[in-house]
Design brief:
Blueprint (H helix, E strand, L loop, with lengths): L7 H8 L5 H6 L12 E6 L9 H14 L4 E6 L3 H12 L4 H22 L16 H8 L1 E5 L21 H12 L3 E6 L4 E2 L11 E2 L1 E3 H7 L8 H7 L7 E6 L5 H6 L6 E4 L2
Parallel strand pairs: 1-2, 1-4, 2-3, 4-8, 7-9
Antiparallel strand pairs: 5-6, 8-9
Helix pairs in contact: 4-5, 8-9
């Protein structure tokens, strides 16, 4: 009798085709592990928030410090206006999407570095993708970490359906961390109360949307959406992060309320 350490699934994967739909379905039988179920991913917007400077950032930093004893936080940063400038130059020079992704990554990293220094007195570390294996240790020791939100696809970034800008940017990168680690929440800190039917800065008739599903939002085909379309598309196949919350970080206490589970801002769900 031949002894084997392979399970039935293991044998099927070794001998079968990885494009076989029935075989792929078998890999989803076991429930996924929530690695960090008590952590919260917070994405701080680049153009919408960090670019506003001291007046916006310092009160939020103070609120983060106040919440350190109560909540574990994985803090990601957007890229903002400087990335948009880099994209415009890169496009005019003929750079492909993967190269534009590299340019955006470094601006997001600059913003993460600045927040890192502002929280240095709390011992909160800045981490790069290669350090994510140590993330649970950092959270256990310091209650928070800071990373740049741009996913490390760089040259491997997929081409968008329209245009040339990287479709998976900082909203997507932070959401992927929340989904992968099975975190408690995914909070986007912006400079608006949440989702509107149009940009409220440009359209006084824009209507606020407190709750909506990702499918409903995609079907509306709005010209301006507060979160990247990639997040809405990925949410529909998510196992853990099937909801996101968008809050106005300029309103004192909003981050605390969101961390405490209150329905402040807009909540978008997968179904």
């Amino acid at each position: 009798m031949t002894e084997t350490l392979l399970s039935k699934l293991g044998e099927a994967l070794v001998t079968g085709s990885l494009t076989d739909r029935e075989l792929l379905a078998l890999t989803d039988i076991q429930p996924r592990l929530q690695i960090l179920p008590d952590a919260n991913v917070i994405k701080i917007g680049g153009q919408s928030f960090i670019d506003r400077g001291r007046a916006a950032v310092y009160p939020l930093i103070g609120e983060i410090k106040q919440n350190l004893p109560h909540h574990k936080m994985i803090i990601g940063t957007g890229a903002g206006t400087r990335a948009r400038h880099a994209y415009s130059v890169g496009v005019e020079l003929g750079m492909p999407t993967g190269v534009l992704s590299v340019l955006g990554t470094f601006v997001s990293m600059q913003n993460a570095r600045m927040l890192h220094y502002l929280l240095a007195d709390q011992g909160i570390p800045f981490i790069e993708p290669i350090q994510f294996a140590q993330l649970p240790l950092y959270l256990a020791e310091r209650q928070a970490v800071i990373f740049f939100g741009m996913p490390p696809y760089t040259f491997w970034q997929r081409n968008p359906a329209i245009g040339r800008l990287p479709p998976n940017r900082t909203d997507t990168g932070t959401w992927l961390i929340s989904e992968t680690f099975g975190t408690r929440s995914m909070i986007y800190v912006k400079d608006e109360n949440g989702l509107y039917t149009a940009d409220p800065k440009k359209d006084k008739h824009a209507q606020f949307i407190p709750n909506i599903t990702a499918a409903e939002l995609l079907a509306m085909d709005l010209p301006d959406v507060v979160v990247e379309h990639s997040v809405l598309e990925m949410m529909q196949n998510a196992q853990h992060r099937r909801s996101i919350q968008i809050i106005n970080g300029l309103v004192p206490g909003n981050l605390t309320r969101a961390l405490n589970g209150e329905a402040v801002g807009t909540i978008i769900t997968a179904d």
